[in-house]
Design a protein that fits this description.
The complex is a heterodimer of chains A (281) and B (470). Chain A is an alpha/beta fold. Chain A is built from 13 helices and ten strands. Chain B has 470 residues and is mainly α. The radius of gyration of chain B is 28 Å and the shape is globular. Classes of the chains: A alpha/beta (281), B mainly alpha (470). Chain A: Pfam families: ABC_tran (PF00005), BCA_ABC_TP_C (PF12399).
Chain lengths: 281, 470
């Protein structure tokens, strides 16, 4: 149970209400450092709301979201302004409906992701305009880093094409590359395999495993594609109607009657037992 | 599994046949007949009064001209649509490798030779005009027109930062122009500061007002942003009218110190510009100096903007235009980014304003009405948002165009001696603009030039570039 011993993300009693609607209800879970944690649940379970709370797009109604840095210090994400969650807390995210800068080239997309370090290198624009300081060198390094990620996601040949021209699968990978260019400690992926064919989804698995292995980035992902979830995740959290119904390793979760009930839409506990007996799980 | 059957649809007749002349002639003939039918009661007779009597004068010639005109236009329309349909139905080979919406890149045609060409013309313009017109006095009109156009080029480039790059629709840009003009007018008349000290001060003051405007509108988008910026422009104008103690109200501020050549006045006496440089005194020396002054300021605006586009702040502006939410998720402080765009755009507006004051020697709130904002915005939109060269061309067309149309006396040959082109110039101009927006809805140069390249420079089709949410 690595996620209990050394969590990178600690969500405590998170509640999000929109008027009378309770989207997330008293949710607590941990994501382990170096783990791939999957957040699953039926449509409308509140997964994306949890993501939006973690990445600062919503301010939670109640609760605490703590990010633990490798040196042991805490940052409370719900108190940081939106952009600082990426810059100071090093949490990066992708979006369910891809949000690339479609009119900018692939390379430009990756340079925008390195905005803050480049901004410092350009002396907050003042030195950069005059051509002073180390901006030129910093930009070269930024391009090198972008190239590294383009090679890793096999997009290097399309570096000078506008992002909006890429096919869907490439756009998904570019969004991950762009998020990785911010050097995140925690990468949050909102349905990264949506719309991918089986081969692309397998490729995505390799990419995510290599991100975790080579860069020490922990991954939190929302996914409906069970081949991705069960294959690569170390830890699965199941949401239904905004509450956590199960939490554990993939095999534990797979056999949890509550999860089966949630996915099959059976309410009665006895009926669940019956269904479980029938399917022989 | 059955493989999907490959179907080949036979191309339809209308497309393969490039232009069906018989059908077109038939249709055009029909249109001409309809015109004839309409023209007989409307055009063919005209009542004329001579003394107490009324005569019917026949105008069959006019009817024939109208019918012929309709016939010809209809035929032309057929030919045009047929070739267009044919071209669309039979794509050329290279189109297969291009994105669907990529039109032949006007930018690539223009940019190679146009930029040095325009720069050369702009630098040599006063001398060319003096040579063509044969004297300094005769070229006054043209040099004044050049100064006017360059002022709008500079304003367009300034607004381009806010609207074109950051995608924030600003309908009150003239407010910063006014702040710059009044800054110079007040600082020079009250404290006797010189133009070169007032210029940066005017820029700083305008930038400050840009930030003051920026704060309340940070959360606004689209129409709401446009309305608030519009209101801001009006507020500044109304304050200038009503704060009589400071601004002298609607009467304006007159006798603003005129431009000097870095301290040397353009006067006809000992120590004047002409005297010092051994030239014969002429009032146009100042005009030419002003021309180069505004050219320098406009080029400075262009240089800074081009530079900023390649810096992180410029990329952040463009990213903000493309997708604000994605920007925030990448750690970009969108508040600061928007404010810098407002401040920098306003600063260049302030520079242009203080140039306006030093050129006119007189400022009044009347010069800073909404129409000015609208013209500047039209320049940016017509030029193609974000494109520097497009904005420059649009400024020449929009400011120079109505002036050129003053001189269309040859139209009198068509419409009779009583025709005054001056009365119709704005109508003609409006038609031209509508045609322009039909032809190129994203502006003259809609392609976006990437700010950084790895291997190969490719222009980005305007259909991919977003207009921003403002």
């Amino acid at each position: 149970m690595r996620w209990l011993q050394d969590p990178i993300l600690d969500v405590q009693h998170l509640t999000m209400r929109f008027g009378g609607l309770v989207a997330v209800n008293d949710l607590s879970f941990q994501a382990g450092r170096g783990d791939i944690t999957a957040l699953i649940g039926p449509n409308g379970a509140g997964k994306t709301t949890v993501f939006n709370c973690i990445t600062g797009f919503y301010k939670p109604t109640e609760g605490m979201i703590a990010l633990r840095k490798p040196d042991g210090s805490h940052l409370l994400l719900e108190r940081l302004p939106g952009f600082d969650i990426n810059w100071r807390a090093k949490v990066a995210r992708t979006f369910q409906n891809i949000r690339l800068f479609s009119g900018m080239t692939v390379l430009e997309n990756l340079l925008v992701a390195q905005h803050n370090p480049l901004m410092i290198a350009s002396g907050f624009t003042f030195l950069g305009v005059l051509g002073l300081g180390g901006y030129r060198r910093a930009e070269k390094e930024a391009i090198e880093k972008a190239k590294f990620w383009l090679e890793k996601t096999r997009l290097i040949d399309r570096a000078d094409d506008p992002a909006g021209d890429l096919p869907y699968g490439d756009q998904r990978r570019l969004e991950i590359a762009r998020a990785m260019c911010t050097d995140p400690l925690l990468l949050c992926l909102d349905e990264p395999a949506a719309g991918l064919n089986p081969r692309e989804s397998l490729e995505l698995n390799h990419l995510l495993l290599s991100i975790r292995k080579d860069h020490g980035t922990s991954i939190l992902l929302i996914e409906h594609d069970m081949s991705v979830v069960m294959e690569i995740s170390d830890h699965v959290v199941v949401l239904d109607y905004g509450t956590k119904i199960s939490d554990g390793t993939p095999s534990e979760v797979r056999n949890d009657p509550k999860v089966i009930a949630a996915y099959l839409g059976v309410a009665d506990e006895e009926e669940v037992q019956q269904v479980v007996a029938e399917i022989g799980a | 599994m059955n493989a999907p059957s490959i179907t080949t649809t036979a191309p339809t007749d209308a497309v393969t046949r490039r232009f069906d002349l018989a059908a077109a002639l038939k249709d055009s003939g029909k249109s001409a007949l309809i015109t004839l039918g309409l023209a007989i009661p409307i055009l063919s007779y005209r009542t004329e009064q001579s003394g107490a009597d009324l005569f019917l004068s026949q105008r069959w010639g006019l009817v024939a001209i109208m019918c012929a005109l309709v016939f010809g236009l209809r035929l032309f329309l057929h030919a045009f649509t047929a070739t267009k349909a044919y071209r669309q139905a039979t794509p050329s080979a290279h189109q297969a490798t291009e994105p669907v919406h990529a039109e032949p890149s006007a930018f690539q045609h223009v940019s190679k030779f146009a930029i040095p060409f325009f720069l050369g013309i702009a630098l040599a313009f006063p001398f060319l005009i003096v040579m063509i017109q044969g004297g300094l006095g005769e070229s006054r009109y043209w040099i004044d027109l050049g100064v006017l156009i360059l002022t709008y080029v500079m304003l367009g480039w300034g607004l381009n930062i806010v609207v074109g790059l950051a995608g924030l629709l600003d309908l009150g840009y003239v407010a910063f122009y006014a702040v710059g003009a009044y800054s110079y007018a007040l600082l020079s008349t009250t404290f006797g500061l010189s133009f070169w000290i007032c210029l940066p001060l005017a820029g700083i003051l305008a930038a400050m007002w840009g930030i003051i405007l920026g704060f309340p509108v940070l959360r606004l988008r689209g129409d709401y942003l446009a309305i608030v910026t519009l209101a801001f422009g009006e507020i500044i104008r109304l304050v200038l009218i009503n704060w009589v103690d400071l601004t002298n109200g609607g009467a304006g501020i007159s006798s603003i110190p005129r431009a000097t050549f870095f301290g040397i006045p353009f006067t006809n006496d000992e120590g004047g510009f002409a005297n010092l440089f051994g030239l014969e005194f002429h009032t146009m020396h100042r005009g030419i100096f002003l021309y180069y002054l505004i050219l320098g300021l406009a080029l400075l605006t262009n240089f800074v903007t081009m530079r900023l586009r390649k810096l992180p702040v410029g990329r952040a502006w463009e990213a903000l235009r493309e997708d604000e939410i994605a920007c925030r998720s990448l750690g970009i402080n969108t508040t600061n980014t928007k404010l810098t765009a407002f401040a920098l755009g306003a600063m260049f507006g302030g520079f242009a304003g203080s140039f306006f004051a030093v050129r006119q020697g007189f400022v009044s709130p009347e010069s800073f009405n909404f129409l000015e904002s609208a013209i500047i915005l039209a320049i940016v939109v017509l030029g193609g948002m974000g494109s520097q060269i497009g904005v420059a061309i649009a400024a020449i067309v929009l400011v120079g165009g109505p002036e050129i149309l003053r001189n269309l006396t040859f139209l009198q040959a068509v419409f009779g001696a009583g025709f005054d082109p001056n009365e119709y110039r704005l109508l003609l101009f409006g038609i031209g603009m509508v045609a322009m927006m039909v032809w190129r809805p994203r502006g003259l140069i809609s392609e976006r030039e990437p700010s950084v390249i790895l291997k190969e420079r490719k222009a980005i089709s305007g259909s991919l570039v977003k207009e921003g949410h403002g």
